[in-house]
Amino acid sequence: MCVLVSIVYCFCPLILAMISPCAKWNTSGITLVGEREGGISGGLDDSLFYPNSIFFHKNSNTLYVADVGGTLAFPLNGSTTAGINVANYSGIAVIYVDDDEDGPILYAAVNDIHVCRIEKWKYGASNGIQVGYELRYCTGIWVDQEKNIYVSDFFRHRVIKWSVETNTTTIVAGRTDESGSTAKHLAYPSDIHVDRTGNAVYVADRGNSRIQRWTKGAQEGVTVAGSSTNIGNNDNTWITPNAIWFDDETSVIYIADGTYSRIQRWISNTSIGHTIASGFGMYIQIFISTKQTLVLVVFNYIELSMLLYYQKT
Questions:
Q1: CB 277 within 8 Å of CB 297
Q2: Is residue 6 in a domain?
């Protein structure tokens, strides 16, 4: 059924106002922030040093970038090219931006030595407030419609959910301190994505070279892309899935392959993916903007950093 729906989307994306699963993308990216090799600058501030995470806030049309020196907000309305420092802290690893009655609110996973904490930065605040309990090392964060916070606990091989209502933490994917390749295990999970219903968590199971879907209350995950027994750089394999994006409208999964520097698109219930963008450097995070039909990618180099976007042809 999902494959049939995807075929329909391929033929009428304009009517449905969404990104077609069959959309063609430019083969080269455009620098948006930072500076490329050879001194090619982006249209915004070029002062990035080593970005860890990005988040595109659709309601305000703003790109948030967690850099080594702090988290910057870049309005994409053309009014300014400079980034606004919204969280002046250097240890932020991954970010998520949600909406609050007072404006955008930043959730940041801060990795210190042997410990990770989640901080909530209200709009205009000079300091963040810790929420939930401390973890080992965080590599992914998501907030659902009920304001529950999901975090991938990398070295403990699990994804946890912190309830803002009950102030309790539950495991929604993997087994605590158990690394493995079976359906009930994860191995060094990196990025996560929660669907808009809150009923499924998609996990980039980095150590197993696969993408797992864990439904609410499930004791095991289901592999929806990749394989723990077959790794490589083919259309159906990779080594290190760094980041994922799940399109709720079409059930298409976009995967950032850090080892082979490519973005792959997997249509639901298929056993093979298609490379839609590639280039030098390491893809750290991917973000799809349905409104602007952009793919935003973080590139990390030894001496330069940039954000690129690939636009549909």
A1: yes
A2: no
Q: What percentage of the chain reaches a pLDDT higher than 90?
A: 35
Contacts of 48 (CB under 8 A, 6+ apart): 33, 34, 65, 67, 72, 305, 306, 307
Half-sphere exposure for 279 (CA within 13 Å, toward CB): 23
What separation in angstroms does the CA of 242 have from each of 82, 98, 115, 120, 293?
A: 28, 22, 21, 24, 21
Q: Which residues contact 166 (CB under 8 A, 6 or more apart)?
A: none
- Could you identify the residue written with the tokens 């495991």? 171
pTM to 2 decimals?
0.88
Structural domains counted in the chain? 1
Three-state SS at 41? strand
3-state secondary structure of 282: strand
Which CATH number is 226's domain given?
2.120.10.30
CA distance 54 to 43: 17
Q: Is residue 2 part of a domain?
A: no
Structural domain boundaries, residue 156: 26-311
